[in-house]
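Narrative of activities, Objective 1.

The group set out to show that a structural description can be obtained from nothing but a protein's sequence at a throughput compatible with the screening campaign. Below is one input-output pair from the validation batch, recorded exactly as produced.
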Amino acid sequence: MTKSMDQGAYKKGRRDGFSKGKDDGYMKGREDALAAMSEASRAKSDPPMNEISLMWRELNCADKLAEHYGQPVILNDHQMENLKETTKSTIWKLEVTANQQSHPIILKIFKAPIIEQSLIELNMYRRASGILSGLMPNIHMVQEGLNGNDVWVFMEFVPQLKGQIIFTPDRFDNIIPTLAEFHARTYNERLYTQWEVFSDWLPLYHSESEKLERQKMNKKALDYLDIAMSRPELKERLDSNYMKVKSILLQGPEYFPELIQAGKSIIHSDLQTPNIGCSNVSEANWKIKFIDWEGARFAPCWFDMFNLIGVFFAYRKDWRNDEENVVTRCAHLYAAEMLKYGIDFQEDPVRLYKMAYLQRVLERSLCLQLEWAVVGNKQAFLLEGYLEKINVWGKELGLH
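Output recorded for this entry:
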């Protein structure tokens, strides 16, 4: 009897324990689910502070940016997008609210240690933004010495052309008037009247260090040209042009004094659609602002026409049949726009464009294409196109 009672108590205890465990597990799971839902709800309305949010408050950025909007500014912590991350910098798209309206802004973080190219761009924002006002994003604020000497630059958000439109050669007409205005502001002696702004940091095309760099690139191009000819797969690509190109390179690295005589200005050096911003592409007269200034330097102004037009056609084989007509139209348009600012080119604009194209290819781009072909770290997609231009335009301009 006692044994039977003990077994019954054991079974009852086991059932009761199972039921209690089941109930306790259910209640604990319900509590955890409610807590998770509550946490998610709080995160949605009041996200945890990230580094940018914390630094924004620590630096009193809202007060400092209020003058740009004429109203108190609030950072929308849940609207942050990392647009680009490299070893040199990070670019964030932020959103602030002022006067009950949302405004996107850009935060570019220059990472320490800041290399030379980044320092050039940073100085363009810190020191040249007033001179180039309206042609580059408005700079709201620059904060130095953060997180081990990082520099944070808050600036106007300008939508890139890339992604807004399908770019065709007729669009050059919308960009060239602004390009001419940009060049005209620092053309020749106009830079030197503002020399104290640029004297200790802006690269100068005619400086001894820049000349030495071109001589080094010239020697590298000759070396890679010979190495390429020893490779059967590259020899076939170069054979018909080898002696001609080598003879031209041996004349270098300065090929056209007419480019210097035509005048120098601050140039951008990388005028591709990601680096050109426009906020009104649906209108006839585009409001252009140039973005990403690490290639800025004082150099022949026609180089930027190569950067804008020549590189486009180098990559876009589908438009090659239109290249001569587009070059003629755009070169004359650029010259006409520069004339509005009192700058009158004595040389034919088309010849100046072709000189700028060949000078840049021979002093830099050809060397890079040959190096990539020999080393194999990148595809030398543009090699044949550059060789064709050296052959055709080089003959036209008396290089061979």
